[in-house]
Amino acid sequence: MIRLDKVTKLYKGGHEALREVSLDINPGEMIFLTGHSGAGKSTILKLLALVERPTRGQLLVDGRNVGRMPAREIPAYRRQVGMVFQDHKLLDDRSAFDNVALPLVIAGLTRREIGKRVHAALDQVGLLAKERHAPHTLSAGEQQRVGIARAVVARPRLLIADEPTGNLDGDLSLEIMQLFRRFNEVGVTMVIATHDLALAGRINGRHVVLGQGEIRSDEAAVAAPGPAPRALGQ
Predict the structure, then answer these.
(1) If 0-12 CB within 10 Å is exposed, 13-18 middle and 19+ buried, where does residue 159 land?
(2) Phi and psi of 135, rounded to 5°?
(3) 32-53 b/e with 16+ CB inside 10 Å = b?
(4) Going from the N-terminus, what domains does the chain have, and what CATH number goes with each?
(5) pTM exceeds 0.85
(6) How far apart are CA 208 and CA 192, in angstroms?
(7) Do 194 and 164 form a contact (C-beta atoms < 8 A)?
(8) In this structure, are residues 210 and 193 in contact, taking their beta carbons and an 8 Å threshold?
């Protein structure tokens, strides 16, 4: 289980992005973080990925305060976390296959295992036929699906997404959210930051509303989570 225990995050100049936020995230949950721009959604995701550290309070994963994790241990931790971004962050000089393969290459997997996993990930997002295409030749929705394949190819236990549908139209946005739901149904814990309340409302999940760095409401999940997953720290 992941727990934010009275977490405060201060930035230079005294800006308080989060103020004593407490939040429990259970294995297998699908959580939507919603709220206005600057409410603290992205900051929570950065904390979960250990891109940022809490100024005060604790970030606990399976009982360990990872907010104080030594820098040398962070790469291994991040291999358990898949990340999806609004602007894809794809490398345009590499094919869809090579973009998805990158985390596995860094992890030192064999060429055979990399090929097997990348093909499976691209097939899951419906892009196996375009594995050799460069990102700029793909549509915005296809580029986002390549980003999702890259995020899940290492079989993470936690997937975080920051405004993953911000640049997509309504139909494509719903398609991406439904794709996230399918991953959640096989046990991946999901935390998605979105400003689109209407879209989030169309997908069963838990809705956490933020405002001015604080949790304003936290609705219980509408649907039960998928199969019992492994905990993040296992």
Answers:
(1) buried
(2) -55, -35
(3) bbbbeeebbbbbbbbbbbbebe
(4) 1-80+156-234 (3.40.50.300), 91-155 (no CATH)
(5) yes
(6) 10
(7) yes
(8) no
Which two structure tokens, joined as six digits, stand for 174?
């719903």
At 1-60, the pLDDT tens digits run 899 999 999 998 889 999 999 999 999 999 999 999 889 999 999 999 999 999 999 999
C-alpha–C-alpha distance, residues 192 and 163, integer Å: 7
Amino acid, res. 33: L
- The DSSP line for the chain is -EEEEEEEEE-GGG-EEEEEEEEEE-TT-EEEEE-STTSSHHHHHHHHTTSS--SEEEEEETTEEGGG--GGGHHHHHTTEEEEETT----TTS-HHHHHHHHHHHHT--HHHHHHHHHHHHHHTT-GGGTTS-GGGS-HHHHHHHHHHHHHTT--SEEEEESTTTTS-HHHHHHHHHHHHHHHHTT-EEEEE-S-HHHHTTS-SEEEEEETTEEEEEEPPSS--SSPPPPTT-
Query: How high is the mean pLDDT of the chain?
Result: 90
What six digits make up the tokens of 153?
A: 């190819």
Residue type, 135: P
109-125 per-position pLDDT tens digit: 999 999 999 999 999 99
- Give ∠ CA 76-80-81 in degrees, rounded to 5: 115
Amino acid identity for residue 87 in this structure: D
